Amino acid sequence: MPQSPIPVFEAADEISANAPVIVILQPAGEGLGPRAKALDAAMGGIVSRACSADAALAECGACIDLIAPQAVSTRRVIVLALGKADVLTPLSLARAGGSLAAHLEGKGEDEATLVLDPVAGAGLSVADIMARVALGLRLRRYRFDLRNKRPIAADDKA
Fold it and tell me: Which superfamily does 21-142 belong to?
């Protein structure tokens, strides 16, 4: 596996139609936000049905993998469970990001669009939540590889 790319985040009001993988960050007990609802409507309600069971989103870091129907241009939609909004911590979010990175790696995906709508009752801002998830992604995908050392110059060998 190549070295981990640096996660790039861009704020957007709408989900890109060209996104190959869409990840919805969803706290337990919360309804879908406006962008997730729009995606759910385009997918015929698959996302809301997958998230309807109380146990589905209770464990922070659990990934629900959905294969998108042909009506949607994305290959897959993943719902990343964040646990209950009132108990979100920076550590739990970083662990969730690590779980997401492992899930994406296991599926052979190297690119994803993260969707997070405002979370009511969370003690963290949307930017803080995204930053902690990104940290977990980055830490999980880090690889230490000695082969990346700079080559020894001929002058240094003598």
Answer: Leucine Aminopeptidase, subunit E, domain 1 (3.40.220.10)
DSSP letter, residue 151: P
pLDDT in tens, 11-43: 666 777 778 889 999 888 888 888 889 899 989
Tens of pLDDT, residue by residue over 97-118, are 999 999 998 998 888 888 888 8
Burial string for 9-36 (b: 16+ CB within 10 Å, else e) reads eeeeeebeeebebbbbbbbbebebbebb
Cite the DSSP H helix spans in the chain. Answer: 34-42, 46-50, 90-106, 126-141, 154-157
Q: Structure tokens of 5? A: 């790319």
Phi-psi region at 16: left, alpha or beta (left = phi > 0; alpha = psi -120 to 50): beta
Amino acid residing at 76: R
Q: What is the pTM of this model?
A: 0.81
Return all residues near 147 (Cβ < 8 A) that are at least 6 apart.
Answer: none
**Beta bridge pairs of residue 78:** 23, 65
